[in-house]
Amino acid sequence: MVVQTELSDAEVDRLFHALADATRRDIVRRTLAGDESVTDLAAEYSMSFAAVSKHVAVLEEAGLVTRRPDGRKRLVRADPKRLAQAQRLLDAFEQVWRHRIDALDVVLTADPRTS
């Protein structure tokens, strides 16, 4: 069973690489609730502004957030549509897994006397 996806392999790689980091997942969570400035985001972490900005750039490259200027600030907002794409991909992998488990269950519960 092959998993069909609306994303290219490179996009999937960027998406899950971006989500592999706890700080980036937290940034996505925070920006799903509403726009956050990079400065406000940086204030919550024990790292430099530049480091947080790099995390935001990774998320932006993966399509998980957008950044837009607002005066002197740069506001970050999560893209729920991209998260939904990730969820659909994970759902497809789950279906593959369930199909294999069901097939294994059939083999393990088969009566060897009837074969």
From TrEMBL:
What the entry lists under NCBIfam families is as follows:
HTH_metalloreg
Write the protein's name: Metalloregulator ArsR/SmtB family transcription factor
Q: Which SMART domains match?
A: HTH_ARSR (SM00418)
Report the superkingdom from the record: Bacteria
Instruction: Tell me the ranges covered by the HTH arsR-type domain, including all copies.
Output: 4-104
